[in-house]
Q: What sequence folds into this?
């Protein structure tokens, strides 16, 4: 799953609306960015509908092969919010109203003069043995069980919960990266870049095409744990770009 | 996998950059929207890194349990573009330079006065037995093998390829939907909405919370294949909202 330097994670976004196109997911990219910055490698993402079997299967696959799993969505008060039940089933434990969560929510709704409806009580349900993830935005907590962190789908709530979760996680050695902008398309640099990648096995060189409508350009990203190895690769990439430019210029003349 | 009315699909987005947070995926939401409009149900999405084993495993899982699979990313000319190899491995066939794709690309680069480099020749590689997916944007074709459609990751190219693929697909009965905007949070409507959902088993009622910074509201979406069943559910939802408003107003007075 991981060595001392590497901590891995997977994400599971839950909700019919993400698969019907009604809602564009905003949590995965945010999670990816914050995990990378923290030194945790996001290795897989899945999006599944509000169907218990699919949630259970995906969660069990992901939690067994990654250090951490982060879920988003399906923990609200309505009938289609089934994440707490599915997570409980995946762990083989009961899903019950958590006493602390009930007390927290009861106090919150009393303070706001709102009725503590059965629907609102649903938000206190979680797998037995869970710990809360504080929700400073709308109070109803997320929860952690085993290596699984269950958070809301509403982006502002997801982000606030993630901010509370991040300091509690074990992190690996951060992946450092350097970016080199390349004005040529991948077809012009693919061969020499491949040679550079082979010559620098300690770094990972990614090549990302951009298309402006009439012309391709490329962003080259060099990643690794050792800054000097990255620097050496970067110098080779920059020298390669000068050489490609000269070649293209010669042909154009 | 599907009955006569239902056609299912899965998506597999491939690329380290999607998992590091460097790039926010723009293809999944677009695909979801167009498949739904066409009457194809997107049932699962996975995002995996540029690692052959992970691509192969995800692809084999998804293609066996859905009518169609759509992949994005990893078919460019650089060393980190390994999708064609991984798809070939998943199908147990050789990955070779396709003669038609080589001819197409050779002519295209000759016309543009560009060298047909080894890197550019990489873009003609595909599993033996594949058919092309035309790429009107930058020429290098995607490909179809079995029920798997392999497309580019650059959004403009992905979209153009998808436009060419959609008319070739078998489609199911379209899912119709009606939207009801609800000014109350899910906690206020969760109980009666759950009762309505139970009373209308022929439709699927989704409830999507919105948070403005100080107040929750909800979008209620009623989906189904029968317009009159949707209408009946919608009338019940609207009557419920009037009743909830009266209750909340009475309490406020």
A:
């Amino acid at each position: 799953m991981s060595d001392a330097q590497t901590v891995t994670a997977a994400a599971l976004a839950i909700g019919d609306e993400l698969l019907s196109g009604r809602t564009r997911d905003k949590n995965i990219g945010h999670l990816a960015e914050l995990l990378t910055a923290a030194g945790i490698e996001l290795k897989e993402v899945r999006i599944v509908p509000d169907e218990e079997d699919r949630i259970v299967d995906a969660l069990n696959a992901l939690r067994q092969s990654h250090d951490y799993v982060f879920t988003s969505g399906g923990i609200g008060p309505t009938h289609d919010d089934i994440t707490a039940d599915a997570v409980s089933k995946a762990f083989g434990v009961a899903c019950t109203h958590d006493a602390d969560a009930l007390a927290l929510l009861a106090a919150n709704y009393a303070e706001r003069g709102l009725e503590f409806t059965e629907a609102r009580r649903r938000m206190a349900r979680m797998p037995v043995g869970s710990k809360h993830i504080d929700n400073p935005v709308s109070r109803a907590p997320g929860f952690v069980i085993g290596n699984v962190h269950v958070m809301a789908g509403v982006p502002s709530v997801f982000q606030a919960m993630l901010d509370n979760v991040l300091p509690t996680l074990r992190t690996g050695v951060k992946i450092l990266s350097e970016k080199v902008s390349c004005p040529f398309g991948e077809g012009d640099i693919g061969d020499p870049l491949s040679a550079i990648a082979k010559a620098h096995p300690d770094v990972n060189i990614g090549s990302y095409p951009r298309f402006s409508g009439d012309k391709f350009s490329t962003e080259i990203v060099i990643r690794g744990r050792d800054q000097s190895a990255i620097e050496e690769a970067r110098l080779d990439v920059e020298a390669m770009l000068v050489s490609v430019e000269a070649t293209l210029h010669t042909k154009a003349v």
User: Anything to note?
Assistant: Chain B has nine helices and eleven strands. Residues 148 and 253 of chain B are 60 Å apart (CA to CA).
